[in-house]
């Protein structure tokens, strides 16, 4: 009985350690996509996007969605780039040891966990902040959309070239 409980506890520890090592999407990843859309030249973004870089594809979609960097807004191109970026998927292999029972040898299993280069959470964070900046919402609302007041102020100054409707401190 004790051996079975020990085996179950060991299996749970190994299984949970695999989960703990998986990267978690953060809003800062979405903000970095928006920063790239505002600072990296459009030609460079399109070159990277054409080579399959999902982050560049999503940043390019933001450029075309909002007409950034003097580029005319093109919703069709924006949607195309966004769909490409959100569909790029890779796999993270996780090795798990499965203990043997009743004197049988244990075995190792490799589990391929899918991961996306641009997660839905990052995309939502980028869109949420971009919409707040495009609409020039009040600083408190913008800070909630972009994460912090400092990030909102930075994105506002990049978006409008230092000319903002709201005096952000």
Quick synopsis:
The protein has 169 residues and is mainly α. The chain is 61% helix and 12% strand.
Textual characterization of the structure:
This protein has 169 residues and is mainly α. Helices cover 61% and strands 12% of the residues. The protein has helices at residues 2-20, 27-39, 42-50, 54-66, 75-87, 120-135, 139-146, 149-160, and strands at residues 89-98, 107-116. α6 crosses α8 (149-160).
Q: What is the total number of structural domains?
A: 1
Order of helices and strands: HHHHHEEHHH
Poorly predicted regions = 18-25
Number of strands: 2
Could you report the average pLDDT, rounded to the nearest whole number? 82
Sheet with the most strands: spatial strand order: 1-2
Number of helical stretches of at least 4 residues: 8
Instruction: State the shape.
Output: elongated
Q: In what range is the share of β-strand residues?
A: 5-15%
Query: Measured on Cα atoms, how large is the radius of gyration?
Result: 22 Å
* N-end to C-end Cα span: 64 Å
**Main β-sheet: number of strands, strand sense, barrel status?**
2 strands, antiparallel
Helix vs. strand class: mainly alpha
Helix content: 55-70%
Features:
2 strands; 169 residues; two-stranded antiparallel sheet; mainly alpha
Write the layout of secondary structure elements.
Blueprint: H1 2-20, H2 27-39, H3 42-50, H4 54-66, H5 75-87, E1 89-98, E2 107-116, H6 120-135, H7 139-146, H8 149-160
Antiparallel strand pairs: 1-2
């Amino acid at each position: 009985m004790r051996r079975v409980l020990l085996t179950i506890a060991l299996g749970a520890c190994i299984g949970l350690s695999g989960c703990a090592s998986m990267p978690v999407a953060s809003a800062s990843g979405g903000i970095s996509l928006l920063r790239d859309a505002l600072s990296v030249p459009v030609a460079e973004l399109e070159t990277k996007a054409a080579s399959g870089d999902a982050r560049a594809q999503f940043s390019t979609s933001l450029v075309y969605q909002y007409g950034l960097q003097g580029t005319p807004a093109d919703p069709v191109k924006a949607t195309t780039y966004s769909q490409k970026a959100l569909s790029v998927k890779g796999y993270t292999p996780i090795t798990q040891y499965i203990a043997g029972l009743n004197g049988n040898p244990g075995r190792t299993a490799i589990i391929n966990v899918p991961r996306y280069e641009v997660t839905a959470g990052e995309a939502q964070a980028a869109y949420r902040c971009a919409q707040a900046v495009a609409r020039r919402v009040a600083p408190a609302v913008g800070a909630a959309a972009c994460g912090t007041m400092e990030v909102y102020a930075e994105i506002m100054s990049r978006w409008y070239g230092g000319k903002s409707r709201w005096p952000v401190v």
